[in-house]
Amino acid sequence: PENGRATPEKTYQILNIKLLVCLRLCLWPENGRATPEKTYQILNIKLLVCLRLCLRSKNEICVHITIYGVEPIARSRGLTYTGIIVVAGKEIPEVNKMAKNVIHMLKSVTDTIGNSFIITTEDGKLIVIDGGFPSETEYFKEYLKNVAGSERPHIDAWFLSHPHDDHATVFFEMIEKHREEFDVDRVYLNFPSREYLAAEDKSAAETMDLFYRTLPLFADKLRIVCGGDVLNVGVAKFYILYSQDFEVRHNRANNASLIFRMELGGKSVMFTGDAGVEAGEKVLRLYGGTGLLKCDICQMAHHGQNGCNRRFYDAVAPEICLWPTPSWVWSNVNGNLQTLVVRGWMEELGVKKNYISKDGTQLIEL
């Protein structure tokens, strides 16, 4: 780093490299000759390998490796190696994307479901959509600071799609425990009542408890949005296409998701939260034929499975899909999800590029 201080946290967010770490273990022989083959046959130990990566220049990475014996080697002090890796053929990209139109789709640090987007604009605006589980707060907070280039980022607009903990609780954690570390101009949402949600979804009702508890901390920033609203955040334009519909009595919390279209940098993006079939169908009825549904980019509803139906995606007809999807959902590990079906739809629609949070934080320039 220019200031002489290692910054591994920032490095982890922007590097996209693979490292092959080879450990060669040998018993110390009496005759002075290493014998790894024999060692492999008789050792039964556990090693902890710690990698600390820091940017050194635009195409050099400093790698600090420490190896600790865990079992049965007690109180190992560790062996340390430090070296330099040169990234051949290209410069390491800069993380600070302010003053550019970029969507940052944040990874999950625990490979779980969640929805977390940070958007920067060419006129210097900072926009957040959802945030994820409370366990994602520290990563979100540090990433936000890094993107903003400030220890106290200023957020121009924070959209909360619906009251599920894998979407909204990072915001509640930030506003309750870290409100001295950021400020926000507007918080946009449209949540149903706790009673409406509790009839079907205990988790969503508990999220509403968090909402009511923290509301006094940001009530002056809150704005309720409804289907048909149009908002401008600097050069970014938002069309709210759908908000909660009390006539929907099924999948209530997910179908209370805001669905909105963002126009930025000559591109259009559809954000769907966890919207279900019913929400998607209502959007088709209201906006079919208006030109507002077709978008260049689409965030896949409900993490890419059991969300909006094929008719909705046919109308959006995206070239790029954003999947806020952990590895086990992407691969349908448990066999009870619809991810593979939805992936098939996107292939049939001719989607050119899929950005998936399971692969790490994704940057999409508009």
Quick gist of this model?
The protein is an alpha/beta fold and 366 residues long.
What do these coordinates show?
The protein has 366 residues and is α/β, with parallel strands linked by helices. It has helices at residues 8-14, 36-42, 137-148, 165-177, 194-198, 202-214, 277-287, 310-316, 327-330, 339-348; strands at residues 46-57, 60-71, 79-86, 102-105, 116-120, 126-130, 154-159, 183-189, 222-224, 230-233, 236-242, 259-264, 267-271, 297-299, 320-323, 353-356, 362-365. The strands form three sheets. It has a seven-stranded mixed beta sheet. It has a seven-stranded mixed beta sheet with strand order 10-11-12-13-14-15-16. Helix 4 (165-177) packs parallel to helix 6. The protein is globular, with a radius of gyration of 24 Å.
Q: Biggest sheet: strands side by side, in what order?
A: 9-8-7-6-5-4-17
Mean pLDDT: 87
What is the overall silhouette?
globular
N-to-C CA distance: 28 Å
Main beta sheet: 7 strands, mixed
Kindly estimate the percentage of residues that lie in beta strands according to DSSP.
Answer: 25-35%
Number of helices: 10
Overall number of strands = 17
Helix vs. strand class = alpha/beta
List unreliable stretches of 5+ residues.
none
The radius of gyration computed from the alpha-carbon positions, rounded to a whole number of angstroms, is 24 Å
Percent range of helical residues:
10-25%
* Element pattern in H and E: HHEEEEEEHEHEHHEEEEEHEHEHHEE
What labels would you give this structure?
single chain; 366 residues; alpha/beta; seven-stranded mixed beta sheet; 17 strands
